[in-house]
Each structure stands twice: as C-alpha cells, then as structure tokens.
Write a structure and sequence with these properties.
Elements (H helix, E strand, L loop, with lengths): L2 E7 L7 H9 L4 E6 L9 H9 L5 E4 L2 H4 L3 H14 L2 E4 L9 H9 L1
Parallel strand pairs: 1-2, 1-3, 3-4
Length: about 110
Amino acid sequence: MALYGYARVSTSDQDLTLQTQILRAAGCEIIRAEKASGSGRTGRSELQLLLEFLRPGDTLMVTRVDRLARSIKDLQDIVYALNQQGVTLRATEQPVDTRSAAGKAFLDML
C-alpha cells in the first residue's frame, strides 16, 4: 500500500513546486508531475502512467481534484476506474477521501 502524488499545472509558465511540496509533506513516496492542459487526458502521459501503475490498496493523492480532472465527467471516470482498481483517492486541500462516507459524498455533490 503506497501513497502516490499527482501534480499538474495548465501552462508551461506555471510552477509545480508548491503542489509537489504539499504532496511530499502529506507523505507521497512518488510524485508524478506535468505541465499540461486539463481539458482531457490526452497529452497527460504522466497521469496515464500513474493510473496504469496503481495497485489495489494504493492511494492517489492530489492537492485539489481540479488538478486531476477539469470536467466532472472526466473526474467521474477516473474515480470509477480507481474504485474498480481498489485505489483510494485523497486531496490535501479538499475533503476528498474515498475511504470515508463524507469523502465520497463530497465527490457525489460535484
């Protein structure tokens, strides 16, 4: 059971440092980061690699869910896939934790 982080900024002139520092402080062992538009998963190779690498019992952590997905549909698809894999999703700056009823409820409200 490992804790993996994912950080993303939308443009090349933005900095990933703050997100990666927060994820490290939260205990992430490995952090994948990229500078890519969040309109879809196309062109987000680090996210795709991470999603394929995760195993049951692992946790994927982001600072906010908008770093993971920009559309509700994409977020729902990712959360569904993580649930099917037995992977937990957590966010450091939002009450998202798919291990808890409250965390699941927060995602359901989106």
